[in-house]
């Protein structure tokens, strides 16, 4: 049943249109002006918007322009007063699907809605065909890869995306866990609804319950008005709880209850609010070890872990570096108005021989910098960061053979050997500041643990939160951050 939003400031006209269009088998919703219409278009995601031209606060022309900027396609039908043919033509020029003069001719309006509905169905079919074509070429939504490991991830996403079950995505930092959550959302029946992502590690412990569950006015000092939490913002859509292992125990208990009862209670509220949200959780920790260490509730882990998608580190599927890098160049050209055409063989060899402790996120930062530096033409080694492959970066390696197996294809260069010999050493020259020495020590330790922050913090003798704060300080100078 197609959804039709009627935006009309005259209440009797709006009510009459709503009843008429519903009698034709459509599901309808009304809005009193352009501002309310835009809000409902974003939240309800109708296939068709029927809007008046002249309205208070926001007229039909502006609403048409704002709807055109939304990610989902909506056919806009403009209602114009008699004698306003110029306005109708202008609306069509700006992208309106069609127009109908007032007073509305029911037969003409019904024909327009039928045609718009058929076009919407065709666009959905085209979308599915385009998705299948992308999958065959090594893409699934925002994910890219042709390796066996990524194909396995793609296959699992396709199987479980249509369901509403909870999913736990695990893997090292920077491997693309949020992209998995977005792909699950994109290929589900909820794809036209909100996708909300919240990083549990980035929210202060005193505020996390308010951010996730919302609060009432006066619930605590500074709560000047009612505020919806992430669950309500993601209503009928998907909520990603990133770094779920960093969520305080008390909040984990409340989250478990929401997952089981599908109801939440805002802070300061005496009543419960039903919620319809698919929850995807992500963590860079080993969840079973986190449960054993008391960092994650066992019952919450088992509730979230209906399906587990394990994202491989980039060093385990280096063959995907080429397609990923080329996709990133396309994105960066558009973002930064560049015209880079590709990557030289020498740079590709360097990229594929690097261990990428920061995984795909680090590769993205590297490609973004190189694209901006080059501006046009081919990316080459000269466009890499000055420290690439030196102290502060992981050792440059080609796939390491296991004991008893043949060595990796190709021989390591003298430069690579030098870094392999130095991979467990931090060299601090005379004149180096204490802050810089500390930075080198932290980054080198992090690399030695393959970006396992919990283990690195234990080795360094500092708390995980202190390590997180240090990494944020280095974020402007290094790609090896969470």
Describe this structure in words.
- This protein has four domains: 3-126, Rossmann fold, CATH 3.40.50.2300; 137-312, P-loop containing nucleotide triphosphate hydrolases (Rossmann fold, 3-Layer(aba) Sandwich); 314-418, Helicase, Ruva Protein, domain 3; 424-482, Arc Repressor Mutant, subunit A, CATH 1.10.10.
- β6 (139-140) and β7 (143-144) form a beta hairpin.
- The two termini are 43 Å apart.
- The chain has 482 residues and is α/β, with parallel strands linked by helices.
- The chain has helices spanning 11-23, 34-44, 60-68, 85-93, 106-136, 148-160, 177-186, 208-213, 230-233, 249-261, 287-292, 298-304, 321-336, 345-352, 359-374, 414-421, 434-448, 453-460, 464-474, and strands at residues 3-7, 27-31, 48-52, 75-80, 98-101, 139-140, 143-144, 167-170, 195-199, 238-242, 263-264, 273-274, 278-283, 307-310, 339-343, 376-379.
- The strands form five sheets. The chain has a five-stranded parallel beta sheet with strand order 2-1-3-4-5, with helices on both faces. A five-stranded parallel beta sheet has the order 9-10-13-8-14.
- It has 19 helices and 16 strands.
- The chain is globular.
Write the layout of secondary structure elements.
Blueprint: E1 3-7, H1 11-23, E2 27-31, H2 34-44, E3 48-52, H3 60-68, E4 75-80, H4 85-93, E5 98-101, H5 106-136, E6 139-140, E7 143-144, H6 148-160, E8 167-170, H7 177-186, E9 195-199, H8 208-213, H9 230-233, E10 238-242, H10 249-261, E11 263-264, E12 273-274, E13 278-283, H11 287-292, H12 298-304, E14 307-310, H13 321-336, E15 339-343, H14 345-352, H15 359-374, E16 376-379, H16 414-421, H17 434-448, H18 453-460, H19 464-474
Helix pairs in contact: 2-3, 13-15, 17-18, 18-19
């Amino acid at each position: 049943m197609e959804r039709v939003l009627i935006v009309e400031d005259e209440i009797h006209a709006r009510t009459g249109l709503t009843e008429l269009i519903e009698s034709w088998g459509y599901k309808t919703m009304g809005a009193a002006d352009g501002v309310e219409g835009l809000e409902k278009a974003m939240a309800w995601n109708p296939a068709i918007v029927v809007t008046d031209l002249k309205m208070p606060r926001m007229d039909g022309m502006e609403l048409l322009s704002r709807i055109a900027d939304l990610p989902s396609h909506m056919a806009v039908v403009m209602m114009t007063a008699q004698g306003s043919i110029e306005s109708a033509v202008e609306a069509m020029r700006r992208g309106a699907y069609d127009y109908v003069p007032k007073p509305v001719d029911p037969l003409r309006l019904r024909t327009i809605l039928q045609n718009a509905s058929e076009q919407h169905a065709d666009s959905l079919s085209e979308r599915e065909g385009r998705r299948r074509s992308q999958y065959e070429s090594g893409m699934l939504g925002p994910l890219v890869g042709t390796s066996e490991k990524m194909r396995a991830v793609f296959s699992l996403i396709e199987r479980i995306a249509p369901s509403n079950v909870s999913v736990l995505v695990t893997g090292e930092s920077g491997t693309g866990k949020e992209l998995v959550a977005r792909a699950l959302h994109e290929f589900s029946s909820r794809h036209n609804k909100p996708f909300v992502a919240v990083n549990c590690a980035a929210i202060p412990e005193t505020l996390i319950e308010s951010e996730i569950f919302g609060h009432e006015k006066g619930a605590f000092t500074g709560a000047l008005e009612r505020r919806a939490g992430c669950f309500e913002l993601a209503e009928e859509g998907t909520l990603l709880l990133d770094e779920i292992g960093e969520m305080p125990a008390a909040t984990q208990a409340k989250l478990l209850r929401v997952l089981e009862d599908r109801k939440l209670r805002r802070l300061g509220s005496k009543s419960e609010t039903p919620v319809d949200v698919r929850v995807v959780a992500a963590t860079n920790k080993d969840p079973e070890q986190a449960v054993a260490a008391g960092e994650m509730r066992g019952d919450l882990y088992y509730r979230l872990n209906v399906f587990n998608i394990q994202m491989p580190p980039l060093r385990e599927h280096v063959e995907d570096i080429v397609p990923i890098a080329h996709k990133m160049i396309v994105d960066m050209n558009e973002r930064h108005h560049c015209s880079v055409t590709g990557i030289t063989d020498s740079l590709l060899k360097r990229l594929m021989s690097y261990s990428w402790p920061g995984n795909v996120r680090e590769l993205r930062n590297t490609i973004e910098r190189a694209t901006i530096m080059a501006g046009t033409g081919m990316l080459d080694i000269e466009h890499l960061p000055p420290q690439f492959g030196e102290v502060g970066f992981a050792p440059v390696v080609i796939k390491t053979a296991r004991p008893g197996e043949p060595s990796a294809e190709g021989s390591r260069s003298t430069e690579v050997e030098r870094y392999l010999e130095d991979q467990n050493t931090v060299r601090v020259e005379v004149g180096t500041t204490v802050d810089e020495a500390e930075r080198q020590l932290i980054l080198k330790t992090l690399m030695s643990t393959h970006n396992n922050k919990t283990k690195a913090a234990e080795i360094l003798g500092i708390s995980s939160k202190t390590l997180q704060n240090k990494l944020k300080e280095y974020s402007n100078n290094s790609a090896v951050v969470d």
